[in-house]
Amino acid sequence: MSTNHQLFKMLDKISTSLDISSSVYKDAEEKYKAVGQWLADGEYCLIDKKICLKDGEIYAQGSMKIGTVVKPIGQEEFDIDLVFFIPNICKNTITPEKLKELIGDRLKSENSRYKDKVTSTNRGWCVNYANQFHLDITPSLDKIDEPYNNSELVADKKLKTYMSSNPKDYAKWVDNSALQIPKIRSTQKLFKSDIFMMDGLFIANESSATVTELPSHTPTKLLLKRFIQIFKRHRSEIYKNKSDEEKKHKPSSIIITTLATKAYLYCIERFEYDNEYDLMLDVLKYMPKYIEIKKSLYWIENPTITSENFAEKWNEKPIRKRHFDTWHDNCQHFFNKFHSDMGQDLLFESLEEGFGKDSTQIIRDEYIQELNKSRKKGLLSTAVVTTPTVVKPNTFFGK
Asked: pLDDT confidence of 372, banded at 50, 70, 90?
C-alpha cells in the first residue's frame, strides 16, 4: 500500500485514542437520561395554569450524536450538548425567557441532585460533573407548522424570540453523507493473492488499475467522521497555548463539520483516489468552497434549515472569520508537509506538533514494538529496539 495509506492508518490510530471511551459514554448517557426524567416529571406553573412536561424528550446533539467527539486536552472536560424537547407547549404560550426560567428552577430546586451543579448558558443550562464532563441543555419546542421534518424551536441567544433548529435531521445528514462510498484506486500489484485486507474488509483486486469501493474505514468509524475528528483535534492543539481571548474565536465544531461534510460529498462525487489520505487532503482543500457571500455577509447554510446561517457570528465579529482562515491555512500546510522521504524522528515530531505528545506516543510505541517483533524474527537484524531513538530508518515506515 502507498505510504499515504500507511500514514492515514497512523492518523486513524491517533483518532481512535481520542474517541470518548465506552465507559464515559455510558456514564454520560445514564446521567443525561436521568436529567431528562427529572425535568419531565416536574410540575411547572405559569401565571394562569400549571403545565406538565411528561412527554419531554432529552437527546444528544452535535458531536456526541454524530460520533465525532474528541477527547479534551489537559484538564478540560467533555462538552456534551443536549436538547430537552417539549412537544406539548406552543410558542405563543410561553416566552423563551420564561421557558429557560422554569427549567432552571426545576434543576435548582432544593430536592434536586443537580442544584449544586447547575450554571446558566445563553439558551439553557449546564450541569457540571467535575473532572468528567458537563451537560449543556437547550430547551426546545415543537415547530407545529412544519410537521414534515424534525425542526424545532429554540431561543435565540438573547432569549427574545424563538428560532428554527433541526439537530436530529442535521445528524442524519452527516450520518448519511458518511455512508457515501468513495472510490479508491488500487495502483499496485499485490503478491501471491488477488485479495487483500483493508481495515478488516476483504477487497478483490482484479488488476493494478481497477477502482474498488471502500464501504467503511473501520467497523466503527467511517472516513468522513475520522476526517472531522482529525481536523478538530488539530484545531484544539493549535489553540492549546493561546490566550483565553483567542480561544473564544477558534473555529467552531459545527462549522468544521458542515464544511468538511459538504466538501467530502463534492470530492467523492467527482474524483477517484489512491488512498484515504489524499481524499482527506482534498476534503480539507475544498472546505472554503462552501463559504458563501450573501448580501455582503458570510453564509454557511445549514443543510436542514436553509434560513439558518452557521457563519452568523463571523458577521458579528469578523475576527472569527480570520481565525478560521488562519487555522485552515495552518491545517493545510501541516498535512501537506508529510512525504515518503521523511525520517522516522521527523515524522513523529511533526505528528506531535499537530496532535500532542500523548496521542503520538501511542503510535510511536506501536511502531517500536513492530520493529522489535521483526528483529526477533530475523527480518531486520538480531538487535531489539528498546527506545525510540535506537533505530533511525532513512524514511518513515522503514522504506
From this structure: confident
Given a cut of 50, is residue 391 above it in pLDDT?
no
CA 256/CA 283 separation, integer angstroms: 11
Max avg pLDDT among 29-43, 91-105, 280-294: 280-294
Q: Which of 20, 81, 93, 113 is nearest to 50 (CA)?
A: 93
Tally the domains of the chain: 3
Backbone angles phi, psi at 24, to 5 degrees: -65, -40
| CATH code of 50's domain | 3.30.460
Residues 269 and 368 in one domain: no
Euclidean distance between CA atoms 397 and 176, whole angstroms: 34
Does this model's pTM top 0.70? My answer is: yes
pLDDT tens per residue across span 54-95: 888 999 999 999 999 988 876 567 889 999 999 888 888 899
Question: Residue 378 is part of which domain span?
Answer: 344-398
- Say whether both 238 and 270 belong to one domain: yes
157 and 203 part of one domain: no
Contact criterion met (CB below 8 Å) for 6 and 397: yes
- Widest distance between CA atoms in the chain: 85
Cell of 242: 493561546
**15: in domain:** no
